Amino acid sequence: MFILSSAVSISMAKDKKLVQSTNCNGCGICVTVCPTNTKLSKAEDFDIEAAKLAIHVTNGNAVIDYEACIACGICSKNCPVGSLTMVQI
Fold it and tell me: Which domain range does residue 72 map to?
């Protein structure tokens, strides 16, 4: 089950940052639940190479694009290995 709540604000949290530990297993759940990524819902609607994804998996590890990430924390709540953590900055 994924935690994706309408109660979560989908605006940029300027006082938070997503950090990643080394235990990512590359499962891709973070990519699936990311609200920034889900705006790009149909593959035919965009060029996957040019897409501005907030988080994607490369070589078995989650890669965060801090310019696209809105710091909502949904990915960290759904990470099965606790690899992603939201921290105050």
Answer: 24-88
Provide the CATH number for the domain around residue 76.
3.30.70.20
Does residue 77 belong to any structural domain of this protein?
yes
85 membership: H or E segment, kind and range: strand 84-88
Question: Is residue 80 situated within a structural domain?
Answer: yes
Helices and strands of the chain, counted as H and E runs: 3, 4
What is the total count of domains within the chain? 1
How far from the centroid of its chain's Cα atoms is residue 22's Cα? 16
pLDDT tens track for 37-79:
877 656 555 666 666 788 988 888 888 988 888 889 999 999 9
Q: What is the pTM of this model?
A: 0.71
